[in-house]
Amino acid sequence: MSLLPPIVPELATLPDGQRCLLWRCESQRHQLSCAPVGGGGSSVVDWVVNLQVAGQYARHDLAVHAAEVASHLGLAGQGVTMLTAADVGAVASAAEQGVRADVTVGISTPTWAAAERCDEGNVGPGTINIVVQLPILLTAAAAVNVVITATEAKTQALIEHGVAGTGTATDAVVVLWPKGVENSEPIQFAGPRSEWGGSVARVVHAAVGSGVQDWRKR
């Protein structure tokens, strides 16, 4: 079985000085994500952008802004765009048997998922964006399972590093996998005790932990 190698993100600077991480897909990939622009499921993408914006970002025309960024970067085809006020230059990455996680971490505003109310007094870059790549085919159910596994691994890393929350209110996850792999059938399960889900859990856990440590140093 020939596995598709993961994409290494590149750091790009836009004409206005904004920076972003860019994953250019040499061949289209399937995606499932909660990215605010282009997210969802049952689609293929040519690129993924993680755009760094100001802490008090106030634009509501996110699709228009994302299209402007794509134009500046010369991107064609379809893609998804995430936004964060965290430093995209401080991306933390981990990989195992072709599974890769790239994470940008901002934890100024952590929150517990089931908190009774939001604390509006907290401000700052509080987003954890995760891009997970797998080299094998996924069923739709397995892709959802990857999102769950990645989120559980993120939360485990935050708790182990003393962060008072399960995440932030604006975290996003993007899962990428190939359109086709020679002599391969889609996997049906991606929970943390499955072969591929275990790799997802470990690389996300490692990348988030590293990102938290780096964020605290900065």
The amount of helix comes to: 25-40%
Order of helices and strands: EEEHEEEEEHEEH
Would you give the CATH topology?
L-amino peptidase D-ALA esterase/amidase
**Count of helical regions:** 3
Q: Detail the poorly predicted runs.
A: none
Secondary-structure-derived class = alpha+beta
Tally of strands: 10
- Can you name the CATH architecture? 4-Layer Sandwich
User: Class, according to the CATH hierarchy?
Assistant: Alpha Beta
> What is the radius of gyration computed over CA atoms, rounded to a whole number of angstroms?
17 Å
Proportion of beta-strand residues: 25-35%
Largest sheet: 8 strands, mixed
Average pLDDT rating: 93
Notes on the protein architecture:
The protein has helices spanning 62-72, 140-160, 195-217, and strands at 10-13, 19-33, 40-52, 79-84, 92-96, 99-105, 110-111, 128-133, 167-168, 172-178. It is α+β, with helices and mostly antiparallel strands. The chain has a single domain, classed as L-amino peptidase D-ALA esterase/amidase (4-Layer Sandwich). The strands form two sheets. Strands 1, 2, 3, 4, 5, 6, 8 and 10 form an eight-stranded mixed β-sheet that branches. A two-stranded antiparallel sheet has the order 7-9. Strand 1 and strand 2 (19-33) form a beta hairpin. The radius of gyration is 17 Å and the shape is globular. The model has no long low-confidence stretch (mean pLDDT 93).
